[in-house]
Design brief:
With 149 residues, the protein is of the alpha/beta class. It has one domain. It contains 3 helices and 7 strands; from the N terminus they run ββββαβααββ.
């Protein structure tokens, strides 16, 4: 008897953890959470970055973190030079390509990946994708006229 595998769902579920904001502002440090206004903490997170085409990059990066919102804030101006410095000798054609910070991995998985003990497919299976990616617009301080409704 032949089973129909068209209606089968994949066995693996995508693991999700944390919310993420890639801070594009060079003059904004986000010492307070932009969502809940509590003080942010400094924490190291092993970030997984996908660079076009088909390149995974693991970066253990110190980021701002809001425990209340479970929000990681990473500065774009700090990530890009680290990626460029890493690939300028080994793979210079991907320097400047589009990238996306897709999630995190556990510290032990980052250490194994850093020592090249894990294949790319094994690393992909261990990624915690971000629950949500947020964007915030910074409004400069100052006096603004009242909006009439």
């Amino acid at each position: 008897m032949v089973k129909n595998s068209v209606n089968k769902k994949p066995d693996k579920t995508i693991k999700k953890r944390h919310r993420f904001f890639l801070n594009p502002y060079s003059d904004c440090a986000f010492t307070k959470c932009p969502k809940c206004d509590t003080k942010t903490k400094l924490r190291k997170f092993p970030l997984v970055i996908h660079i076009e085409p088909k390149q995974l990059f693991l970066l253990n990066k110190q980021c701002k973190y809001c425990p209340s919102c479970d929000l990681i804030i990473a500065k774009k101006q700090e990530i890009e030079p680290l990626m460029a410095a890493t690939f300028v000798q080994t793979n210079p054609q991907i320097v400047g390509n589009n990238y996306v910070v897709m999630g995190t991995v556990d510290k032990k998985d980052w250490k194994e990946g850093d020592k090249n003990l894990l294949s790319t497919s094994e690393m992909i299976g261990r990624i915690y994708v971000f629950k949500d990616v947020w964007n915030f617009e910074v409004i400069p301080a100052g006096w603004y006229p009242n909006e009439e409704k």
